[in-house]
Design goal:
This protein is an all-alpha fold. It is 85% helix and 0% strand.
Length: 68
């Protein structure tokens, strides 16, 4: 994985960790469920991270098997 991809993945993971930490604190302190839009935003971040990682894998598989 290139350095820029690694930085991008790290950035996504940092953001997701912060959002999930805030949601967890809401559950513990206030005994409230997080806002639905906040949960959807975290889900979208996870989807973006998955796409970022899966695109890299697909390209690698194509290059590995093109020689056959």
């Amino acid at each position: 994985m290139s350095a820029t991809k690694r930085e991008e993945v790290s950035s996504h993971l940092r953001y997701i960790r912060l959002e999930l930490r805030e949601m967890h604190q809401m559950l513990i302190k206030d005994d409230l469920l997080p806002d639905l839009n906040d949960a959807k935003e975290v889900h979208a971040q996870l989807d973006a991270l998955h796409e970022l990682l899966s695109d890299n894998r697909r390209k690698k598989f194509k290059s590995d098997y093109e020689n056959f």
